[in-house]
Amino acid sequence: MPANPPRPQVKVRRINLDTGRENVVVISRQSMALRPDVFRGFSRVELRANGKVLLATLLLTDDGMVGPDEIGLAEPAFHRFAEPVGTPVTVTPASRPSSLDSVLGKIQGRTMSEAEITAIVDDISRYRYSDMELAAFLVGSASFMSSGELLALTKAMAQAGTQLTWDHRVVVDKHCIGGIPGNRTSMVVVPIVAAHGLMIPKTSSRAITSPAGTADTMEVLARVDLGVNELREVVNACHGCLAWGGHVNLSPADDILISVERPLSLDTREQMVASIMSKKLAAGSTHLLIDLPVGPSAKLARANDAMRLRKLFEFVGDHFGIEVEVITTDGRQPIGNGIGPVLEAQDVMAVLGNEPGAPRDLREKSLRLAAHLLEHDPELRGGAGYARARELLDGGAALRQMQKIIDAQGPSPCRSELGNLTADIVAPHDGVVTAIDCLRFNRLARSAGAPIDKGAGIKLFKKIGDRVTRGEPLYRIYAFGESELDLAVAGANAESGYTLDAQAGRETR
Question: How many domains does the chain have?
């Protein structure tokens, strides 16, 4: 019987095209090695070279972007495939991931086994799912997730990427569920706790729908894309770090799921808990503090919502041997004065430097959170955490520790100046500020260009309870481009995000 003929090959070409998270490849409609009329019927293809396999979405082109003997790999696909330009590859239609059968069963109401969930997470972390297939899994899981499925999902996501271990009995960490602009408490808490001597290897995310994540803000001050070995060196030298978790590859499936979750506004309690706990499990945390902001425009609007979420965190923590403490905090308004990486970094350094104009709310919340973590030190007397945290902050030890962490992580590759274009949004009438819409300010700051432009964002002049007069600035928008500034100003003029009680303003005269 004759041997199968060798499959035709095409050469890798790098395409300067940012396709976000998705792997995208391009072939010419005049391809000599591949038959475009055959591949037109397949949305996904499989590339193979030197033992490597990459699944990608296929596009056809007529414009000469790639030659007839080439296949173009967009930037994400090129980096993940990690083969040099000119490498010959074989291309075949991609088979459907078998784990999708489990997703279909979940949509139909069936409970998934641990093995099924592990297979799904493995396929997701290897980029074998399209965005539609990811959405199907998320929607199916959002309808109902059993306690067993929650534990299996947490475990599978933690084991899919890097898992850090530390030679310390106590490894503390903190996490906020997000949604509150300017809430950069981690950047104050980490140097306080590290200055005391507790280990706190803080890995954080970049922003997805917010104007800044902790990693985006820290990147104004230092490099955050540390490798695993670099991260270990920083933590061993400084007792802590503030690094981007995505570069260390902690729970990679979670980052993929979040990128689809957020645009769909899917944020169920079970998926949120699995997301957070998988990263903390992978990071080697032993003691975890969870911050649940509660407020009208926060992710949690009522105390009852926070209580139900707290029980889930405690349940998962107990199962995996992580001591979890959950506290509720004030989520009625942004924390600090700045929204956007540069403005938030200025707030952080003002608090650490004990500057007179430093935002008091960021300082006090950070001290409270640090106090909870410091109480895990067996050498510290019970109830002494707050006094110790304040001592470290007021005495300058926290600032010195932050500088040590910055020096260890290396210089920032980013610009740190504020946007050169500004516009003030003023009060339409006299009154007292009674509400500030957190979600609205997240959107306005992103419209101004944050976090892509780190110096873009919003500086707040007024908080809840402040009295204002007509024409007085409520906040200032910073941007680098006129189109971004115009977009943010138009949004602010349509809905400023502030609620002013005019009657209260008249009564105080």
Answer: 4
CB 12 within 8 A of CB 73: yes
The pLDDT tens digits for 130-160 are: 888 899 999 999 888 999 999 999 999 999 9
Predicted TM-score (pTM) above 0.85: yes
Q: Are residues 139 and 182 in the same domain?
A: no
Q: Give the 3-state secondary structure percentages of the chain, helix then strand then coil, rounded to 5.
A: 40, 20, 40
CA–CA distance, 255 with 150 (Å, rounded to integer): 17
Q: What is the pLDDT of residues 209-239, one digit of tens each?
A: 789 999 999 999 999 999 999 999 999 999 9
| DSSP per position, 220-256 | TTS-----HHHHHHHHHHHSEEEEEHHHHTSSHHHHH
Active site residues: 267
128: nearest Cα among 56, 21, 228: 56
- Do 368 and 431 lie in one domain? The reply is no
Q: Are the CB atoms for 235 and 285 separated by under 8 Å?
A: no
Q: Give the helix/strand (H/E) hosting 216.
A: helix 214-218
* Phi/psi-derived region of residue 457, left when phi > 0, alpha when psi is between -120 and 50, beta in every other case: left
